[in-house]
Every structure is written in structure tokens, then in C-alpha cells.
From TrEMBL:
<keyword id="KW-0376">Hydrogen peroxide</keyword>
<dbReference type="InterPro" id="IPR000823">
    <property type="entry name" value="Peroxidase_pln"/>
</dbReference>
<keyword id="KW-0349">Heme</keyword>
<dbReference type="InterPro" id="IPR033905">
    <property type="entry name" value="Secretory_peroxidase"/>
</dbReference>
<keyword id="KW-0479">Metal-binding</keyword>
<dbReference type="Pfam" id="PF00141">
    <property type="entry name" value="peroxidase"/>
</dbReference>
<keyword id="KW-0732">Signal</keyword>
<keyword id="KW-0560">Oxidoreductase</keyword>
<keyword id="KW-0575">Peroxidase</keyword>
<dbReference type="InterPro" id="IPR010255">
    <property type="entry name" value="Haem_peroxidase_sf"/>
</dbReference>
<comment type="similarity">
    <text>Belongs to the peroxidase family. Classical plant (class III) peroxidase subfamily.</text>
</comment>
<keyword id="KW-0408">Iron</keyword>
<protein>
    <recommendedName>
        <fullName>Peroxidase</fullName>
        <ecNumber>1.11.1.7</ecNumber>
    </recommendedName>
</protein>
<keyword id="KW-0964">Secreted</keyword>
<comment type="function">
    <text>Removal of H(2)O(2), oxidation of toxic reductants, biosynthesis and degradation of lignin, suberization, auxin catabolism, response to environmental stresses such as wounding, pathogen attack and oxidative stress.</text>
</comment>
<feature type="signal peptide">
    <location>
        <begin position="1"/>
        <end position="27"/>
    </location>
</feature>
<keyword id="KW-1015">Disulfide bond</keyword>
Length: 355
């Protein structure tokens, strides 16, 4: 009986130890707003200062910086893989058709990273920088704020094939767009709210041309006057013109984007399909956000927090890159990389979308 009691006691103690250990691991892997409160308390000040200067120099940069987080998180999660450059034996995601010739603002991330490596070396991940930069860039042009969670680590790999599959194309259909966002855990309301990011930014003619010259010329939601304007701005779809995605207030984050969509002034097919072919519920959310900017701001902020939680590397996974463009040298690698990320040397033509 004594032996049985001892065995039972040992089992109870072992169970308590395992529960405490598991709880500790879960706490370590959880994103939290105060992750850098002791290790890098100047993080938010540094990022805000650099972003403010960049947007003051060029208002359009706000949209460019915001897009970086979306294009990173939608491919294998928020792990900074988007920022990795190609090397002789590595192919990153920058050449994906939705990224090449389209994404910009990398130099702003570089400046922030350089300052952080001086202030608190080997501490702040590139993935966390992207999350904070997205918020601060939106705030700089009048948009909502939210509490950014930290604790992401950086991937040591990238996935070009997945980038070409998961990032929405200029020719995507309404049902495909809904499914694309649903696969990341976003409902219809969140899809429409995140699309409101197009209230700032610009597009070049290439992704607009299919709606002017085929194969998408049968759409009903573009009004005649706006169609004529786009034809003049994009003759044969080859002009280098920059077309505002919200021709009402392109440099201000507000609900004008939705108002313009309802008026038939949507530049991109991927925006207009919310009116044309995504169903009554989506149209109701477009109408709601057009009328109620506060509701749009609240839903957009909540959706951005959810985006920042997409499959982050945490704890001992990945690494903290010292240079966002490259994986750390072997001597600095202490990683458990994502098993589904691979170096896949697949190159495809680019969509020419510029925020």
C-alpha cells in the first residue's frame, strides 16, 4: 500500500510539473503587447519617428508600408519571409507576381532595423517591425490605431509558390476572393474591412487594363465617366500612370473608398467584385462602412490584429534576423523553421500594382 501511495504521489507531482511546463511554453509562444517592454523599450518611439518622416516625405508611402504586412502574413504567416532577398541558392517571395514591381518601402524597414540593432541588438524581429509599421503608417494618414502584439520571430525560408497561390490576383472572382480570405480565418465583414485599406494608395495601369480592354469588360459597377477617365489615363493599358484607388481622398485613410465603390469609381477589379459578384451581404457591409466611418475604423483595426496573429513563429522557432534581407550566418542560427516552407525557385510574371 505504501508503494502504491508513493507511486500515486509521484504521478501527481509529475502531472503538476508537466502542466506547469506546458503553461510556460504556451506563455512563451503567446504574442503580447509588452513583449519588448524591458528588452527594447524604445521600439515604438523609433518606429514611429522613422515612419512619420517617411510618410511626411511621401504620403503614398503609408499605403506601401501597410501592404508589406498583408503580403507577408498571407503567405505562410507573419514571419518576415517577404523581406528575404534572392541569393545564389535561395529564392524569396519578392518575385511573386503580386509582389514584383509592386511592393516598395523596404528601405524604411531597413532604416528601422538599423536603428534597432544599435538600440537593442539581436532583439526585435523583422516580422514584428512589419506589424508595427503597418499600424503607424495608417495612423500617420488619419486612420485608426490599435494595440500591436509582439513576439514573432523571423523565418529562415520563404515560399514563392505559395505566394503566387495565396496573394489575390488582379483577375480574381468574387467567390475566389471570399474563399481566399476565409482560408486565413477572415469572415465577410473582415474581408470588406481589410479591403478598405485601398482608401490610400495607387495602382499602375497593368492591373486596371483587363477591365478596360478585356477580358473583364462586361462588369456593371464601373460608371461610364470613370471608365472614360481610366481609358485616357491608361491608353492600351501600357501607360506608366498612377491611378488613385480612392479618387476622393487618396492621401487620407477614411471611408471614402466605399462611397466611391458605390458610385462606380472602383479602379481595381478585385474591389469592384464586392459590388458585382460577392453577394448581398458583402454589399451591405460596403454600404455600412460608407455611411459609418467609425464602424469601418473599428472593424479594420480588429481585422489587422487578427492578421498579425496568422501563424507566427514564436518561442524558439525561427530566428531574430540582424538584417531583414538575409538569414543570419550559421553561427547565429538557433532555429526551428516552419516545416512547410521551402526554397522553391519558381518565377512568374509580375502584376504591376503600386500603392
Amino acid at each position: 500500500m505504501h508503494v502504491i501511495d508513493m507511486a500515486l504521489l509521484l504521478l501527481i507531482l509529475l502531472t503538476m510539473f508537466l502542466q506547469e511546463h506546458i503553461t510556460s511554453i504556451e506563455a512563451c509562444n503567446k504574442l503580447t503587447p509588452d513583449f519588448y517592454s524591458e528588452s527594447c523599450p524604445q521600439l515604438e518611439h523609433i518606429v514611429q519617428t522613422v515612419v512619420k518622416a517617411a510618410v511626411l516625405k511621401e504620403t503614398r508611402m503609408a499605403a506601401s508600408l501597410m501592404r508589406l504586412e498583408f503580403h507577408d502574413c498571407f503567405v505562410s504567416g507573419c514571419d518576415g519571409s517577404l523581406l528575404l532577398d534572392d541569393t545564389a541558392n535561395f529564392i524569396g517571395e519578392k518575385t511573386a507576381k503580386a509582389n514584383i514591381g509592386s511592393l516598395r518601402g523596404y528601405e524604411v524597414i531597413d532604416e528601422i532595423k538599423a536603428q534597432l540593432e544599435i538600440e537593442c541588438p539581436h532583439t526585435v524581429s523583422c516580422a514584428d517591425i512589419l506589424a508595427l509599421v503597418a499600424r503607424d503608417s495608417i495612423v500617420e494618414v488619419g486612420g485608426p490605431t490599435w494595440t500591436v502584439e509582439y513576439g514573432r520571430r523571423d523565418s529562415t525560408t520563404a515560399n514563392l509558390t505559395l505566394a503566387n497561390l495565396d496573394l489575390p490576383s488582379a483577375l480574381i472572382s468574387g467567390p475566389q476572393l471570399i474563399q481566399n480570405f476565409a482560408s486565413k480565418g477572415f469572415n465577410l465583414q473582415q474581408l470588406v474591412a481589410l479591403s478598405g485599406g485601398h482608401t490610400i494608395g495607387f495602382a499602375r495601369c497593368a492591373p486596371i487594363a483587363p477591365s478596360l480592354y478585356g477580358p473583364l469588360t462586361d462588369e456593371n459597377s464601373m460608371n461610364t465617366a470613370y471608365h472614360t477617365f481610366l481609358e485616357k489615363a491608361c491608353p492600351n493599358g501600357s501607360a506608366p500612370s498612377l491611378i488613385p484607388l480612392d479618387d476622393g481622398t487618396p492621401g487620407k485613410f477614411d471611408s471614402s473608398y466605399y462611397t466611391k465603390l458605390l458610385e462606380g469609381n472602383g479602379a481595381l477589379h478585385s474591389d469592384r467584385i464586392m459590388i458585382d459578384e460577392s453577394g448581398r451581404t458583402v454589399l451591405e457591409y460596403v454600404s455600412l462602412f460608407a455611411k459609418d466611418q467609425e464602424c469601418f475604423f473599428n472593424d479594420f483595426a480588429k481585422a489587422m490584429v487578427l492578421m498579425g496573429r496568422l501563424q507566427p513563429l514564436t518561442g524558439s522557432e525561427g530566428q531574430i534576423r540582424t538584417n531583414c534581407h538575409f538569414v543570419n550566418p550559421p553561427s547565429k542560427l538557433k532555429t526551428i523553421p516552419k516545416t512547410f516552407n521551402h526554397k522553391l525557385p519558381l518565377r512568374t510574371p509580375a502584376a504591376d500594382l503600386h500603392p
